[in-house]
Structures are given as C-alpha cells and as structure tokens.
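OP here, attaching both records as promised.
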Amino acid sequence: MGVQDPICTLILGNHGTVRTEEATDGGNRPKWKNQQRYISYTNAVQNKPDELKVILKNNGFAGKTIGVCTIPIQPLISTLGNESVAWYTLKSESKGRPAGEIEISLLFTKDTGDEKNVVHATV
C-alpha cells in the first residue's frame, strides 16, 4: 500500500481555510516544504474566532482523516505579537481516540494599515 501522504488543513472559524502541500511519503513524521500559512480576518467587521481547527488527512489511496484537534484562539490573541509553539493531540473523528500529535507554531499580528489581524501558522 505505501506510506501516508499527509495534508494539514487549518480552519479559523468562518474567516478562512488554508492547506499545506502533500508531504509525499511523510508517514507518521511528515515535514512540509512550504510551512508558512496565513489567514486574515477583519476584527471590525467579523467576530473574533473562538478556535482554530486542525485536520490532518492522508492524501494517499484511501484519503482518510488521520486526526483532528481544536486550538482555543482567545488566549493566543491576547498575546498579540508573541509566537506560541506547542504540540497538540490529534483525535480520530469517529471515536475521539488519540491519533498522534502535531506541532504548530502560531503568531497573531495586527496590520495597522488596514486594521486586519493576521494569523501566521506553521505546521
């Protein structure tokens, strides 16, 4: 069958979705080439997002979800400009069982030019 080809999807409420490229033959320790991803939201028009949803999927033959997790955003937004690097536990979608861990770096910045908040995420 082969080794997993993981893709990581980040969803910031209804403000945006970004995906990594496939980590071909990444197996259970994938590394993505272009790791930096950005999601922008305008605080004046939209509500602050409550969480960042992370979905790790095998892009290979079966295309199954490996695991998911949600990261509360409010504590991170309050530390605007400070990078947060942490490991998060992934759980299976169907049974909620542990399905591994993923290291994610998050940085919230404010673009004062057009009053947008930008989430920089590295997986």
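Record two, same layout:
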Amino acid sequence: MSHKILIIDDDEFLLDMYAVKFREAGFDVDVASSGGDALDKIKNGYMPDVILLDLVMPGMDGFDFLKTVKDGKLTPHAKIVILTNLGQKEDIDKGIKLGAKDYIIKAHHTPSEVVNKIKALL
C-alpha cells in the first residue's frame, strides 16, 4: 500500500516538482495551493499519512493550518512536516511546538533528499 501525502504550497512550480518526485517514489500524492484548500480536502475525508506544509502562503499560513489541524484533531495519524524557506530559530521552534514532526528548509535540501527524509520518517 502506498503512503498518501498531501503537499501544501502556493508556489505552483515547487508544488508540481515535489508532486512528481513523491509520485516517482511510489507515494499517492494530493496537492493544495493554500491552507484553506488543504483543510477542505481533510474535512471532506481525505486522510493523508504525511502532510508536507509550506509556511508562507496567502490567506491561512502554515502555522494557522497546523494549529487548526492539531486543535481540531483533524488528522490524528498524519505526520506533518514543514517545508519552507523560513530558517529562523523562532519559526522552527514554533513549528515543532505546534506539532510538526520535522522542519525542512527548502534551500538546504534537494527534492530527492526531502523524499528520503519523509521515507525515513515513515
């Protein structure tokens, strides 16, 4: 059985690139371009094993999405991993405190490395 991953990023180029990489690695991929869009999918019954979450997005940002999902226990079994270019210690601490399993800085990892990190997490 392949793992389901939901990738949330408002950058369409990155969204497509990561979606392709995870599909090549055997994941069942769904994408959302905003936190609100992702919440709708989850509220409509989509239960991913992993959520790959960007922080900087219009409308609902990644922190708000994370807080909403955790407070509402919307994806109790999903591992949420932040994938962002925000590398400040405060952002990393906040993300982990809100319940993220890992925090990956986009600029420091190739898409293949990101896929491998997610595989290791599972």
